[in-house]
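Retro notes (design track)

What went well: tokenization of the new backbones is finally stable.
What didn't: we kept losing track of which sequence belonged to which structure.
Fix going forward: every design gets posted as structure first, then sequence, in one message. First example under the new rule, 102 residues:
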């Protein structure tokens, strides 16, 4: 049993067990993939109402999306964008800004 006063020396861990730091390019790619996966999970809900949301690109923590179908020209498109942003933040656990791509 591990005593609560005992600390684990992670420096003594084998390299295979220690997480390797990500390069900036790898971190950016991981962030983009997480955002793309989260948006892909939301798309069926939008499609059920005749709309769609496509991820165009990710720059930092900003996701540029293109609405399609019934969402184009809809008065509530900005509400949809805000809803997508809120769901991404909840799912991913980090701030994401969602903006329409032009």
């Amino acid at each position: 049993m591990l005593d609560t006063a005992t600390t684990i020396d992670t420096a003594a861990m084998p390299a295979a067990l220690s997480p390797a730091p990500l390069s900036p390019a790898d971190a950016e790619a991981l962030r983009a993939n997480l955002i793309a996966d989260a948006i892909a999970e939301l798309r069926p809900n939008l499609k059920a109402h005749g709309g769609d949301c496509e991820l165009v690109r990710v720059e930092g923590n900003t996701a540029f999306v293109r609405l399609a179908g019934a969402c184009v020209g809809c008065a509530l498109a900005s509400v949809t964008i805000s809803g997508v942003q809120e769901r991404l933040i909840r799912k991913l656990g980090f701030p994401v800004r969602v903006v329409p791509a032009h």
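Added context from the reviewer: The chain has a mean pLDDT of 86.
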